[in-house]
Amino acid sequence: MASSREKEALTRVLAHEGGYINHPKDPGGPTNKGVTQRVYDAYRRGKGLGTRSVQQISNQEIADIYDRQYWDAVKGDDLPAGVDYVLFDGAVNSGPKQSIIWLQRALGPLYKGRVDGTMGFTTIAAVNAVNDQDALIDRICDQRLAFMRRLTTWPIFGRGWSARVAEVRSIGQAWATSGETQVANFYDGASAKAFAEDAEAAPMTAPADAAAGAGIGGGVIAGTLQSVQDQLLPFSYASEWIGKIIVVLTIVSALLAIGGLAWSCYARRKAKQLAEAMGPV
After folding, report:
1. Superfamily (CATH) of domain 4-198
2. C-alpha torsion sign, points 130, 135, 137, 141
3. Which pTM value belongs to this model?
């Protein structure tokens, strides 16, 4: 670990992560101090070591994994104070790519590159061009919360995530403005991984489009029957039952068309909101 800020940031991230957790609804699976079993297995294989339970992870292994896979991934040493910690915490919780996406979107027009979750020169230059790091941290945390609220796991872990992000925001802004350090706390559920793969599904528009199409088609048929009825006026009985069919068909067609169009608008609006919250996946 090259910088003292990395050590201080790690202390706070570890406070948020707590110890060993294996919640059945946590998409990260068995996790110890923020390191999942999958990440630990990959790390040990890369070192030519046999796999073992993440419960046995050493402090040195934790420091090494956090340094290489999270701090370096978001280029923490190249970021301003406070922003580095906010990106670091987000990377541990949701992956470096997702955390960088929040940053790129939060940068707004200052960022001229693609929102791709890659911390390149363009992203770093945009961060350094920001005059108000406090406001940038606010926008990053807002992006993070909007993302989390669209996950299927939000009802289970949302309260803990909200508390964690609020504290990350506070610590990051204090760091950015005055250099003051604040302690971090553990919140129940806050250590659960928040992955894009768990995003809620966008409502389907196909059934609504089909209903609207059926309604419009039914209206056409009703119009055709109306012309047939006019031709059968001399035959009062036939004309009467055709008239009843027309009334029923017209009502059903109108309901299908209106309902289908209304649901289609709702589904497209929800899909747009989901895309805005999730960003590129």
Report:
1. Chitosanase, subunit A, domain 1 (1.20.141.10)
2. negative
3. 0.75
